[in-house]
Design brief:
The protein has 205 residues and is mainly α. Helix content is 58%, strand content 0%. Helix 2 packs across helix 3.
C-alpha cells in the first residue's frame, strides 16, 4: 500500500506545474491579512476584500488605528467580517508594535491565526516546508489514501509523519490544485491522472 501511495504522489506531482501559488501578495503583512480573509471563502474574494482594505489602510499602523466597523465595511465581501475585522486589527496592531513574527509558533499566538494560516505564512514568507491542510487538501488526501481522517489537524500530522519534509509544501499546493480542478466535491474522475490507482475511484485496479 505504501508503494501505491508513493506512486500516486509521484504521478500527481508530475501532472502539475512546477510553481503553484494561489495568493501571490509579496508583502508579508498583506499576505497574512489576505490569508486571514480567505477563511470560509475563495481566494479571489479574499484578494478582492484585501485590495479594498489596503487601498485606504496600506500598512499595519493604519489598520491598527481603524475601527472594526470601518474595517468590516471594506472586507464584507469576504464574509464573517464581524469576526475577521477585530482579528485583523489586533494582528496588525501587534505587528505595528513588535514587527513581523519570526516563527510559526509566534504567529499562532496571535488572535485568529491557526495552523493552516501559519503553514501558509511559513511556506510563502519563510520559504519553509509546511503542510497546508485546507478543505481541498484534506478531501483529496483522504480520497487518495494519504490519510484516513477528515480532521485537518490530524490529517496534517499524518502527512508530516508519512512523507519527507521536503515534499510537504509541494504536496500542499498540488493536492489543493487537484481538489479545485479535478477532485472536486463531485470529482471529475475521467480527467484524473491517477484514477487507475486511486482507492476511491471505480477505475482502481
Amino acid at each position: 500500500m505504501e508503494n501505491t501511495v508513493n506512486t500516486i504522489w509521484e504521478r500527481l506531482d508530475a501532472s502539475y506545474p512546477e510553481r503553484i501559488s494561489f495568493i501571490t501578495e509579496p508583502d508579508p503583512w498583506r499576505f497574512l491579512v489576505t490569508v486571514m480573509l480567505s477563511a470560509s471563502t475563495t481566494d479571489a474574494q479574499a484578494v478582492k476584500a484585501a485590495s479594498a482594505l489596503f487601498a485606504l489602510y496600506p500598512d499595519p499602523e493604519s489598520v491598527a488605528g481603524a475601527g472594526d466597523e470601518e474595517i468590516g465595511r471594506l472586507i464584507r465581501s469576504a464574509g464573517l467580517w464581524k469576526t475577521k475585522a477585530p482579528r485583523i486589527r489586533e494582528v496588525s496592531a501587534y505587528i505595528a508594535e513588535h514587527g513581523l513574527p519570526s516563527s510559526a509558533e509566534e504567529l499562532m499566538k496571535l488572535p485568529g491565526i491557526g495552523e493552516k494560516t501559519a503553514a501558509c505564512y511559513t511556506e510563502h514568507v519563510f520559504g519553509g516546508n509546511a503542510v497546508i491542510a485546507d478543505t481541498h487538501f484534506v478531501r483529496v488526501a483522504r480520497r487518495l489514501g494519504f490519510t484516513d481522517t477528515s480532521d485537518r489537524a490530524k490529517a496534517a500530522r499524518e502527512i508530516r509523519e508519512r512523507f519527507p519534509e521536503d515534499s510537504w509544501s509541494r504536496m500542499s499546493m498540488v493536492l489543493n490544485m487537484h481538489g479545485r480542478t479535478v477532485c472536486r466535491p463531485r470529482p471529475l474522475c475521467a480527467s484524473c491522472p491517477v484514477r487507475a490507482l486511486c482507492p476511491s475511484s471505480a477505475d482502481a485496479v
